[in-house]
Please model this.
Amino acid sequence: MVAGTGRVGEFGSTPQERRHGWLKNGNPPGDLSTVKRCGARTRRGSSCQCPAMRNGRCRLHGGLSTGPKTAAGIEAIRRARTKHGCYSKAAMLERRQGRVELRILRETLAYLAKTF
Ligand SMILES: [Zn+2]
Model:
């Protein structure tokens, strides 16, 4: 180590030097001037020209989320959106069956009252 240079150890010993040429998030490095551009129409009428993502649009014009795809993701969203479960499929089916049973009981009671 040379005093006064500010360098610590050998070249490539710090994490910053080891990942030289690669982005922190693991994306491959590249020339930003050559990447695919977003083609969304702007309010000016021209196209957006921001760097495009895999779907062809930029981070601002990527569109809405298409929702969870895996069973675990769907379950997580369902749990996050449920407040009391009154409108869950099981609860609505239970209420529907209760109404059917109540109607049958009323009809039976009316039949018995007429008969006896
Ligand atoms: Zn865009």
About this structure: The mean pLDDT is 84. DSSP finds three helices and no strands in the chain.
